[in-house]
Write a structure and sequence with these properties.
The chain has two domains: about 70 residues, no CATH class; about 140 residues, Double Stranded RNA Binding Domain (2-Layer Sandwich), CATH 3.30.160. The protein has four helices and twelve strands; from the N terminus they run αββαβββββββαββαβ.
Amino acid sequence: MTMIKMKFRGLGKAAMVGAALALAGCAATPFRADVARFQTQLPVPQGQSFTVTATDASLDGGIEFGHYASLVAGELTRYGYRPAAPGEQPDMLVRMDYSIDNGRERVRSTPGFGYDPWYGYRNPYYYRPVIVRGPNGRRYVYGWRDPFMWGGFGPRWGYNDVESYTVYTSHLNLQISRAADGYRLFEGRAEAQSRDNDLTQIVPNLVEAMFTDFPGNSGEKVQITVAPPEKR
């Protein structure tokens, strides 16, 4: 027993290095957003013109908002609409806003590189998917998991550590109205959770999620996964 404990202690030191490497790779993990979209009579794209403005008028003209607005305009153009020319009365008015909260602290017990009685020594961040039948006929699926967002793997793992971290919730709202009478044509909301609050990275991901399979099915809420930049 003493020899086994000593091996575990040595493995625990290696786990510190492995955990640091796993954390360093968190930025390359996919971005997931919950997207809800509603539409009434969004016209079939035939080159209709549009302008993008901020729901909060104080943001209009801002450099940062202009950057995000250009991303929205690029997506609409890709689907067959076009930005209104200077001085042109647009067919559609597009309003958007985005925000991120102050974050909430979470505490999780995270796994270490310990001994699994079924599989031996395991990496808590990634291992091949396998389905195991447990008590009462339950099925447990093991595969990739980010313990910092969703918690650890349970008591089978050795050397669990208690981690405190912050989770931020961000959102993007988008409304498209008919310019002639203000009739609402489309409403969408994309929401995500992340471990950082960098809007320069988060808002583009939310925009991409919003326009994945745009305009979507009215009243349907879906989860969209955006690949890391190097995978796109």
